[in-house]
Records
---
Amino acid sequence: MSTPVIGVLALQGDVREHLIALAAADAVARPVRRPEELAEIDGLVIPGGESTTISKLAVLFGVMEPLRERVREGLPVYGTCAGMIMLADKILDPRSGQETIGGIDMIVRRNAFGRQNESFEAAVDVEGVEGDPVEGVFIRAPWVESVGVETEVLAEHGGHIVAVRQGNVLATSFHPELTGDHRVHGLFVDMVRANRTAAS
């Protein structure tokens, strides 16, 4: 089977780190900025950064609607931190004009774990990731307030939901791309491979 091609939405945030993590997890990784580039990928990562900025730039670059369409069609997508917010069907406290791509039936609270200077690391047990707990880096991280019946909770920290999956869409509050542990990216690459197999 050929190696899956996975894009990283390269509008803002820690794009380079995701490209490295995806390559380490045996995917071909490439930055994506334009609608036509969406047609060339088997999966997409939406990185951390600032969710309001990513939302505005996605609209400006003309990728918001094509992204929503591809998610509806079943494109595997993984969002970290701000990417989790972008994949939520509803934000509890959105900024004015803030839009999301949607794809996961959940309500997310922005900056729930505190401001930049309250960032922290914690060991997180993630369902579907074998071995030791994942070292989660939480930077102005959101948490999930509630999920719908089709949304699977993969991890919690401090009584709050920090990793979820619904079908082909995966999201974490934390940043595994910053730790050198590529197991969560490996989980996503496996999701992309399974989706390609099912579609062929």
---
Amino acid sequence: METTSRLEAQDTVGDPDAPDGEPPLAAAPAGTAAQRAVDDYRRASFPWYGLDEAFTGPRWLMQVGTAADGTVQHGAVGHGDEPSIRPEAAGAERERFAAVITVVASPVRHSGDGTGVLDATTVSSAAWLAGSGLLAYTWPAQLDHSLRDDWLDQQTETAFELADDLAGPAWSMLSLPVDGVPTTFHYRESEFGWVLAGSTRAGVHIGAYGRGMSAYGLGFSAVQDLGAYV
């Protein structure tokens, strides 16, 4: 993979001023967990992406990931039914969701605090985050809890290897609109759901995963109002 290590998502808490033109978030009063989550997303120096206006269902924030110096590197927003971590078989069939991950495109560089080097982020980074994100919500309901970690480690390693080989036979090509422009994505399906990854003209990579919702009819656009996800 173009990155030299795997990206780790972690929660961060910030309290920056809202960017110019950002609408007020009346649904998330200051000091609430929802407002703190929005603040985390607003700390990013890049645009967030989600499903475009053709999707009319529920939207929700997930979490952001940061570098060692606290710089926001990636994050995800959800659409549809919020998935259960361990759904019953019948529940898994009913759940329809898609998560969209935005990863800032950047080369290998020194961290802002001077403590080390930050890895490059590429479309493979987005594919890895999407693949591991899908696994977090789809481990088999019949699997004994004591075996979950072993299963997850094995499947996560497979997802990493697949993301490292986007030209391999596990992936096909799929064209979907991003801000109205046809864009090529790497796409694959598994028994757990689907994963895709591609790059945009806005200097970010998009990864996405879902279940119960076809990827073929999706479109992506820059998020104009984070309040729609609160």
---
Amino acid sequence: MSAKKPPRPKNLTSMKMLGKQLAAARRAAGHTQSALAALVKVDEETIASIEQGRRSLKPDLAALLDEILQTKGMLSVGVANLPEIDQFPMWAELYMEHEREAIALSLYANQVLPGLLQTRAYAETVLRERVPAYGEDEIQTKTAARVERQEILQRANPPTLSFVVWEPVLHLGIGGPEVQAEQLHHLRVCAELPCMSLQFLPMASASHAGLDGPFVLLETPDHQHLAYIEGQRGSQWVSDADEVSRLSLKYAMLRAQALSPLESKGLLDRLLGEQ
């Protein structure tokens, strides 16, 4: 007997959003979770789980809630259009929310350029390298979302940004000569942004504090310091003060080992001159 194929996971981010809409409609109607549960004849825990995005809202219950809460079909439409797969996993959604609100970001990259610095063509090429492959629609959606994140660079009050990138990343032939030349030019333009410090860790450097891989340091508007570490099979937030401090020390060492921002501009100029 063949093994039963597990169902594809629902979009947890959208489930959470739909849950927040239900909670807002419930409060607007003056109901507690317990009172609403009694009206629709389910357990209070069921309502709580749906509002927290931990349980799917079923179409028949959505229709009943629309009627009781007078939400004019909003919940039913949300259920009917719930995507099957997350555009971004929950941890990535949380990161991008913090990224949008951060007052300071420090990023170390040693595999590909950080998403905030990628051109559209470079980003699309990186996404096409994914194994197993994304579908064409998914590639275009994710590329657009990655480029949209870069609006923080052009804000009237952008965050303070620091990037340290290992030099071999600049020599990868991602996308071919034209994509590479466009990307180098884009980096050179970004290097002049007043909110940004862009440094490259030389390929010939005898010291290298970033051998454990890429990471991000982030400061929130309320001055909470967080770190974010992304790997091939998952990612993690680091909020423990001691761990964040260790990564901050590592980043400080990387900046000291890297070329200065002025020297890094010179490296880009030389690479552009060789195109």
